[in-house]
Automatic annotation (TrEMBL):
Region forming the signal peptide: none
One matching Pfam family: Oxidored_molyb
Domain (Oxidoreductase molybdopterin-binding): residue spans on this chain: 48-194
InterPro entries per record: OxRdtase_Mopterin-bd_dom (IPR000572), OxRdtase_Mopterin-bd_sf (IPR036374)
Organism, as annotated: Streptomyces monticola
Protein name: Molybdopterin-dependent oxidoreductase
Amino acid sequence: MLGLGVAGVAAAPLLQRGVEAVAKKDPTGLSGVLPAGGGFRYYSVTASVPHKGERDYRLKVDGLVERPAAYTLAELRAEPQTRLVRDVQCVTGWRVPDTPFEGVRLARLLDAAGVRPAARAVRFTCFDGAYSESLTLEQARRKDVLVALRMQDKPLGHAHGGPARLYVAPMYFYKSAKWLSGITLTDEVRPGYWEERGYDVDAWVGRSNGRDDAPTV
């Protein structure tokens, strides 16, 4: 048994490299159920996702607002930044503790756009062309909901939804839409990609029940 344990430790780096190689070539996303990338598991609902960068990334804010906008990465970085350190919890069971995210509070972008009285919710769309998510307006205005530009104290990489993603700290990670491209104010909550397939619309982790009592740093 000891010999098998030593052999397993020795083989672990090879297994990890093999998993990462398979994940890069797997258009189904099924290899994402295997651990990779420091505890994270990668998911995509499309076979491929275009890369966006300084020159071609835009984040649109529209719908029931007075002042529609389209932010470049430079403009998002110029906004005041908030850093949160929380556990990332996936509804499928995996968890990455104490993960720093940094970005612009979503509430700040909503205030800049001038939310109309008829607005009740926010719909998020992504440049993969398929994924979407939603929050109530009250949820979207929480202090721990960001348009994240950095993760683990470095710029948000493509595999993690970069260059900008939604980060909803108190909810399961499927609410934190990757490759964020649109923020649209709506008159009602419109279920997102996974909610249309049976997931909860209100996806609070554990017993938080939406409490706004966790500190920010």
